[in-house]
Each structure stands twice: as C-alpha cells, then as structure tokens.
Design a protein that fits this description.
There is one protein chain. It contains 13 helices and 28 strands. It has about 600 residues and is an alpha+beta fold. The strands form seven sheets. It has a 15-stranded antiparallel β-sheet that branches. A hairpin with a 2-residue loop joins strand 10 (about 130-135) and strand 11 (about 135-140). Helix 4 packs antiparallel against helix 5, helix 6 (about 345-360) runs antiparallel to helix 7 and helix 12 runs antiparallel to helix 13 (about 575-590). The radius of gyration is 25 Å and the shape is globular.
C-alpha cells in the first residue's frame, strides 16, 4: 500500500535526512547531503526506485511508533500473532561518513523478520554493482559506494538487483544493521558500533533538548518542532533547509511539485526569533552567520534562496523516469524561482540582522555595512513590481506584502540608528523612505469599501501574507484596517477552518494550473493575528486545531487538505514548524497576561 505523506517519520544526522514509513521502509534518502541525489527514491516513484524495508515477514504497517523521548531516534513496534518486535532507526551524528543504523529487538515471543535493500543511485535511475567483502554487502556505481553489514551476521542473498535477508528474533535478542556511504574512490570508513552509537545519539539529543528554556503550555509540540528544525540544519554551515524532500505535491496528481532542499531567506526572521526565544543562541548565531555569508556581494544579486553552503546556481530540472508521489508529475530538482525578483527578502534579511543585534548576539563588524548596501539598493527599486513572497510564475505585480517588507527594512534602519546614533547612516533618509512606503501602501494596497488590504495594488484578491502587517509593526493591532483585514482573510480565504495563501478561484494569480491545499503557516499567522487583535480564545482554538493535524510523531508538511484530511507538500516543512513554535510562545505569553478577551 502506498504510504501517504503523513505516514513518514524523519531521521537525520544534521547533514542529510531519511523518511521512514509506517511499514518499516526507508523510502527517501539523499547522500551525502540534503541536496545530493537520492539513493532511496521510492517516495517519488515505486520500490524499484530504491528503498530499504525491515519488518516482520508478511506484515503491513507497524502497530505503533514514536520517538524515544526528546530525540530523533525512532522506534516502530509490530505486534504479531507470534510475538512483538521493535525496530529502532536513527542516524548517528556524523564523524566522517553518513550511517543509518537499524536495530531489530525481540520484545515478546518469536518473530520472523524480512529485509529488502534496493539501492538505486541518482534518484532511482542507477543500479549499482553488488559484491561481498569482509562480511559486508558492497554497492558501487560511479562516485557512490554503500556498505551494509549486520551484527550478528544474518543470511542475505541477491534477488532482482536487491539484497534480501531473513532472520528470526526472540524476546531479548537484537540484530543490528549499519548502512554506510562513502565516495567510491575512498577506502571503507571505520566501522560504527551500532549499540554504542544508539547510546551516544540519545545522549546527544537529550542534552540538546534540555537546553530549551521554554517550559510553558504546548511544550511537547514546541520541543518536537525545535528538534525537527535542528534536524533540517546543515551542520557544517548552519543553513536550514525548507524541507528535506523535493516534489511532494501540493495537490495529489497536480504539477505544483517543487524542490525545497535549499535555504530560503523568507524564513530567516521567524527562524531566528524561534531559536532565540527558546534559548538556542548557538544555532541562532550559526543561522545569522550563514545568512551573512550567503547574501554577501552586490545587493543587486540578492537571491530568495541559496544552497546549503550559500551556493547560488540551483538550476531546475525534471526527472522524467520518476512517476511522482501518487502520480504527481513532474518531479523536479533545483528551483527556477531562484532567479525571481522578490523585494520582500531585503526586508526579511534586514529584519533578521536587526533582531540578532537587539537580542544580544555578538555583532559582526560588516553586518551594518551590508544592511546599508541592501537598503541603498531597495530604496531605488521598491517601487517596482515583483514576483512576491509566494513566488508566482505569472506576471509581476505590486504585491502589498513586498511593499510592507520594504517599510520594515527602512523602519529597522531607523530604529538601529536611533538606538546607536554613532553608526554610519542617514536616519532622516530612511525615515523619508519609511513614510513614503507607508503612505503608498495605505493608499494603493487598501480597499476602503471592503475594509481590507489586498494582495496587490488595484486587485480585489486577498493574501494571507497581509496577516503579518500587525506582527511586523506596520500598523497597530487595534487599527480598524488591521481588524478588517483579519476578518476578510478569515471569511474569504479559510477552507475547512484553515487558511489558503490566496484565492484559487477565478484567473490564476500564480500562472499555474490546478489547486493546492491550505497553507499551514498561514493558519498559524491567522492565530497570531487573532491573538494580537484581542481574540485570544479564538486563536487558542485555531492553534489546537493545527496541533491536531500533526502526524503520529508530531510532524507537519507544508499544506493540508481539509476535505481529504491529509497533509500535502514537502515534508516535514520548516516553515510550518517555525510557525508552530512562534505561535505557541506568543499564545503562552497572552494566556499568562491578565484581562485577555475571552472571545
């Protein structure tokens, strides 16, 4: 049976990640990095495109599963007529080579197990040559080499270009498998002790989770989201990928399938805020430093996204041999939106660096000079139309959110110079820009008849991004225009109680056919806006509804289909989990405050 998006759990080593299905199959893994070619790509095709399943012979999905404590160590349990068995899956934090460890443990009775390892490099297109060597099964194709061993050694045989295994575990018995990748020209890496690696992995994750200083309501959901964000961090650089997957569909059978294995600047302020608020200063500093390196250079060359180390070329390609998740094609690698003009990213970068500065992170000497350069470019370009936050592939427009973020850029510069007047910069220049942007947005981006901000100048469409207007400080929450916008978005963009990014009826705003699900981070924004406008109980009810959409191990994709009752889009999605953390923290503060509106 095909696994749905929400049927997967995440394991990772802070450089790449794998998705493990409820049936015990690892159906997605890119090695050695998040953005490398996948050696298990069944997620976007079928078993012939690569997977690794270990489960009781003839069994289907596991009976139950969970992460062990506050860690990224996954435990899946099958209760069978002959006994109960547990499979523990994890990736040790990497020394030199990436490893996947799978430990099979008999709990009760005696259970016959079956394993199938089907390696297919380059997104399921390359069948490697398999051989035996020193107790290992070794797969080699071009630059890739994978070694598989078990402790104790179990019976394996080749079948249909796969490695199959069969063994039995009784109560108290353990069989461990270790799969290790390395460049094919290098010698085999040092062997990993799977049981020692498990102890170390648990200690590492529990020590990291213990650093979280948030102890308020919804802590379980907050810490699971923070662990997920940590797992999506590329350790060597501090960059955080939007998701570890590509081409999981925003509509089953549709064409809105994008590669999210890159780092988006749009996530920067919200990510930094979540990390700082929960006490993860090292991770916040690493993300800030990645940001500074990535955007260094000419302000006119600023991109909306970068590779894990700040790479700029991310050409979009279609992989025609993959049939797509549940038939959703095309499958894409790279992302053509990298060349778009999205003026809001200037505001997001400057807001992030302002937040870092005011939150006590050590100042980088060149950070302010970089902000001035970005501001100078934005001052000359903010009046132009762009593709906007949602990366539309239709005509450029004067998107209201883009203009608001231009206001944010100027406002943060003013605040910085007012607080530190010795810094270089003309505060009056940025005040004039701030006032001009504000006046234009209020005149051209607001519909007085409907009492709401619109998606773009002269349009009647609404945009969930306008919910951020009070959050970024463009207008106070009690301004009638803010309240009207929140009500309009709730009335016109909600579907099944959740929020779409923008209207999907009528002419296509984004230049793409088909539809999509509700956008989870937009629903978190609505909860934030309801809280800011005094409707705390409504915000809390919406937040708890969103929590109920998480899968059984606490993970969220990018979108949700309230009709089919399933998750959509790349998974797990950093933006969704960032929204969860920030909304939880803000709600906790509101619920503690006296005299909150009960409405």
């Amino acid at each position: 049976m095909t696994q749905r998006i929400e049927d997967y759990a995440l394991i990772g080593d802070l450089q790449t990640a794998a998705l493990v299905g409820r049936d015990g199959s690892i159906d997605w893994l890119c090695l050695p990095r998040f953005d490398s070619g996948a050696c298990f790509a069944a997620l976007l095709g079928d078993d012939e495109n690569g997977h690794w399943r270990i489960a009781p012979a003839g069994a289907g999905d596991c009976t139950r599963r969970s992460y062990r404590g506050e860690s990224l160590v996954l435990e899946s349990v099958w209760e069978t007529p002959s006994g109960t068995v547990k499979v523990t899956d994890f990736m040790p934090q990497r020394d030199t080579a990436p490893d996947i460890v799978r430990i099979v443990e008999g709990v009760t009775g005696q259970v016959e197990m079956a394993g199938t390892l089907r390696l297919r490099f380059d997104y399921g297109s390359v069948v490697p040559w398999m051989r035996r060597s020193d107790g290992h099964r070794v797969a080699v194709a071009g630059p890739d080499s994978v070694w598989l061993r078990s402790e104790p050694e179990v019976k394996t045989w080749g079948q249909h270009f796969s490695t199959c295994s069969s063994f039995t575990v009784a109560a108290g018995e353990k069989v461990a498998f270790v799969l290790t990748w390395h460049p094919s020209e290098d010698p085999r890496p040092a062997l990993v002790d799977p049981h020692e690696a498990l102890v170390n992995a648990l200690e590492d994750w529990h020590a990291w989770s213990a650093r979280c200083r948030y102890q308020g309501p919804y802590r379980e959901a907050v810490i699971r989201s923070l662990i997920t964000l940590k797992a999506l961090t590329f350790g060597p650089t501090g960059g955080i990928v939007a998701a570890p997957t590509t081409s999981l569909p925003e509509e089953i059978g549709g064409v809105r399938n994008w590669d999210y294995r890159f780092c988006w600047l749009r996530d920067s302020t919200l990510t930094l805020g979540a990390l700082l608020a929960c006490g993860y200063l090292d991770e916040a500093a690493a993300w800030r430093d990645w940001l500074l390196r990535a955007v260094a250079g000419s302000p006119g060359d600023l991109q909306i996204m970068y590779g894990l180390a700040g790479e700029r070329r991310l050409p979009e390609t279609e992989l025609g041999w993959l049939r797509g998740h549940e038939g959703s094609v095309p499958v894409r690698t790279g992302n053509g939106a990298v060349t778009q003009l999205q003026l809001d990213v200037y505001g997001e970068v400057i807001d992030s660096l302002h937040l870092a500065r005011t939150s006590g992170l050590s100042n980088e000497p060149h950070a302010w000079s970089l902000q001035l350069a970005l501001l100078g470019f934005l001052e000359s370009r903010w009046r132009e139309p762009d593709e906007g936050l949602w990366e539309v592939r239709g005509p450029r427009r004067h998107f209201v959110h883009s203009k608001v973020m231009a206001w944010v850029a100027a406002d943060r510069a003013v605040r910085t110079l007012e607080a530190e007047p010795k810094l270089r910069g003309d505060v009056e220049q940025w005040r004039r820009m701030r006032d001009e942007v504000h006046q234009e947005v209020c005149e051209k981006g607001f519909d007085p008849e409907r009492n709401t901000f619109t998606q773009s100048y002269g349009s009647t469409e609404l945009d969930a991004a306008t919910l951020l207007i009070p959050q970024v400080g463009f207008l106070p929450p009690d301004d009638p225009r803010v309240v009207g916008t929140v009500d309009a978005v709730r009335d016109e963009l909600c579907h099944g109680g959740l929020v779409r990014r923008y209207s999907m009826e009528g002419p296509s705003v984004d230049g793409l056919p088909g539809g999509e699900g509700t956008f989870l981070v937009c629903s978190f924004w609505l909860a934030d806006a309801l809280r800011l406008t005094g409707r705390v109980k409504e915000a809390e009810a919406l937040f708890e509804k969103l929590l109920s959409l998480r899968n059984d191990v606490g993970l969220l994709a990018e979108e949700y289909d309230p009709v089919a009752g399933r998750q959509l889009g790349n998974f797990p999605q950093a933006f969704s989990h960032i929204g969860l953390v920030n909304t939880a923290l803000a709600l906790a503060r509101a619920l503690e405050a006296p005299g909150q509106d009960a409405g």
